[in-house]
Amino acid sequence: MSDERFLTRPLSVVLDFVRFGAALLVAVGHAVQLGLYHGWFPFGVRMQHYCVIVFFVLSGLVISTSVLGGRSNLPRYAVARISRILPVAIPSLIFSTLAAYLLAGPSPVRMDNSPEDALAVTRQLLAPLTFISAWPGVAGPVWNPPYWSLCYEVWYYAIFALAAFLRGWLRVIAVIVGCAAAGGAILLLMPVWLFGVALTHTPAARRLPLAAAPFLLAAAVWMALALFEIDRETLNPLLKAWWPGDAEWSQWALSDLFMGVVMTTALAGVRPLANRLAKPVMRLETAAKTLAGFSFTLYLFHWPLIQLLRSWGIEAGRSFPVFAALVGLIVLSCAAISLLTERSRRSCGAGWRSAFPVPLRRLLPSRPRRRA
Predict the structure, then answer these.
(1) Are 125 and 97 in contact (CB under 8 A)?
(2) Hey, which of 20-24, 227-231, 252-256, 306-310 has the most confident mean pLDDT?
(3) What's the pLDDT tens digit per position in 77-118?
(4) Is residue 64 within 8 Å of 5, Cβ to Cβ?
């Protein structure tokens, strides 16, 4: 298995569990942050933020793998991305708006900068739908802040596609224009996404011997612990000192780059172990796909669900069992919602295919690829 592509089937199963685990940790962290639980909790907001960095590295890895070998093209790529993102993104924005204005209980929980008129509400919906809400000065989705990372990823998808599928000067010009349109704040975190891309093009990462895996994993753990010692006191103030504008969601970019290195190192170490344990790992494939199958929905819907619980006065206080039950309710609700969002991507993909002329449909996939 040493000379095949980096993302092998056993590693893909492992990463499905990682994807769900990261989405779950984000939901748990935000539940504590929003006051659903007031008991002891060992992590702060950095936990859920670094989980997003895990998503970015995985996204770059999966997207790059999907275009290896010349089996994809720009129309296929575009349809696969559109049919994967919009069926979850649009319902999440609609649900967030309903949760804030129509479904909220007697004690609605509003963000400090919640819009107060119809024009502001419209702006809050249009900016995320066009994935420009992460631009400096453009109002983000105040009812669903986790949406910021999707806005970042969409720009990375677009820039990567321009670089991968265009040729010559057209590619150079298109990439420059794409980077300029994305803006500096979004580009600050693009190297993290490119770490995943780099894994697919690094022969040494595919040929790593099994004996080296424990050392890489130990190094990743050590670097992660070191990161929590230097990010707040050293790395984050350093960025603020030299970055000229508003970094928006990239205000921890230097720490995030460090975390990207941690995740990349961990992936390189996990791969030979997953391949060595391929048989037992593959027995977990169904469970992994089931959990990963609604991780995107869990990520985009947990915030408004938490806000809804709070608006109806439902909180766990300091009771950890009650908190665990409420988190379980949120996870199960997202699993049910995913039947209308993530599970509908096949029909969405078919709908997008029908919008193209017949000659172009032959270039498009009958099934959208799995999301990064």
Answers:
(1) yes
(2) 20-24
(3) 999 899 999 999 999 988 988 887 777 777 666 544 455 555
(4) no
- The radius of gyration of the chain from alpha carbons, rounded to an integer in Å, stands at 21
Reported as half-sphere exposure (CB side, CA atoms, 13 A), residue 61 has a value of 27
CB atoms within 10 A of CB 321: 8
Residue 263, judged by CB atoms within 10 A of its CB (0-12, 13-18, 19+), counts as: buried
Confirm if 363 and 109 have CB atoms less than 8 A apart.
no
Question: For residues 286 and 232, what is the distance between their CA atoms, to the nearest angstrom?
Answer: 40
H helices of 67-183, in order, are 74-101, 118-129, 148-165, 168-182
Token pair belonging to 282: 């593959």
Question: Are residues 311 and 35 in contact, defined by beta-carbon separation less than 8 angstroms?
Answer: no
pLDDT tens-digit profile of 195-253? 999 999 999 899 999 999 999 999 999 999 998 888 877 787 777 777 776 777 788 88
- Cα distance between residue 309 and residue 105, in whole Å: 8
Helices (H), the chain: 9-33, 45-66, 74-101, 118-129, 148-165, 168-182, 184-188, 190-200, 203-206, 213-230, 236-242, 253-276, 278-282, 285-292, 295-311, 320-337, 345-354, 358-361
Which pLDDT tens digit goes with each residue over 23-82? 999 999 999 999 999 999 888 878 899 999 999 999 999 999 988 866 778 888 999 899
Q: What is the dihedral of CA 48, 54, 55, 56, to 10 degrees?
A: 120
**Cα(294)–Cα(370) distance, integer angstroms:** 12
Q: Are 151 and 134 in contact (CB under 8 A)?
A: yes
Burial 281-300 (b: 16+ CB within 10 A, else e): beeeeeebeebbbbbbbbbb
16 and 270 in contact (C-beta within 8 Å)? no
Q: How far apart are CA 117 and CA 53, in angstroms?
A: 34
Distance from C-alpha of 340 to C-alpha of 26, rounded to nearest angstrom = 22
